[in-house]
Design a protein that fits this description.
The chain is built from 2 helices and 5 strands, in the order αββαβββ. It is of the alpha+beta class and about 100 residues long. The mean pLDDT is about 80. The protein has one domain. Helix content is about 20%, strand content about 25%. Strands 1, 2, 3, 4 and 5 form a 5-stranded antiparallel beta sheet that branches.
Length: about 100
Amino acid sequence: MDKSLPFLGYGSPEKLEEALNAENGPDFMIIRETLLNAIVCSSLSISDTVARMARVPSGTTYGWVIYEGDIFPNDVDPHPGPCAEHPETHKHYLFNC
C-alpha cells in the first residue's frame, strides 16, 4: 500500500508549488496566505478574482471564499480596498476558508 502524500493531486511538492505559483501574475497576486486567510491583489472583476482564488488549494472542504464582514469592529477602511501601488486598477481582497 502506497502511503506517500498525494500533494493535493499534483503528485509532488514541486508540481504543487508550480500550480500555486501559476495563478500569480500582473492581474492577480496572492500577497499573503495563512492557514485560514489570504490577501489578494487583483485588477480582475470580483467574480473573476473569486473564480481564480477558487482554483488555489486550501486546507478546508469549502475552499476559499471572499470575506464579506468587517475586518475589525471599528474598521473605516473599505473592503475591498485600493492597492497602495496601483490604486487606479487594483484592489485588495480578503479571503478565508
